[in-house]
Amino acid sequence: MAYWLMKSEPGAWSWDQQKKEGKAGAEWDGVRNYQARNNMRAMKKGDLAFFYHSVGEKACVGIVKVVAEAHPDSTDGSGQWECVDVAAVADLPKPVTLADIKATPQLKDMVLVNNSRLSVQPVTVAEWQKVCALGGLPHPPKA
DNA sequence: GCCAACGTTGGC
DNA sequence: GCCAACGTTGGC
């Protein structure tokens, strides 16, 4: 089991929309980047991920769970791209902003800091726990 | 709104 | 297979 971070522009797909999909979840579609696709292929059912709002807000706002492993992206006609399904699990009581992350020495190696353009990225256990703690979840959910 | 960084494309 | 040009992303 592993932890991840998935980015979305709120204008394209927001945390509110994700939550409306409920426990059944929704396709994380539209990813057209090989590294991000490979990360999704590595995901297992039950893995957890931060839901990050890029652009305006720049903060982790919630936690999602992988409910279906990689399958062809229904928005892609070429069959080349894949996606997973994710369902909202919990809000982060306090959104953890990019500035918060940069200001935290233990988080300086996060992919988010060093490769901000990668839309689906791995998160270590230590980073998971630290970001959850900053977000107001002293007992982070476990994948 | 600007610009730097990155990934992809296509000509050679 | 290399590299220049281009498009896109995302922080500021």
UniProtKB/TrEMBL annotation:
SUPFAM superfamilies: PUA domain-like. Gene3D superfamilies: ph1033 like domains. This is Ubiquinol-cytochrome C reductase. It comes from the Bacteria. Residues 2-133 form the EVE domain. PANTHER family: THYMOCYTE NUCLEAR PROTEIN 1.
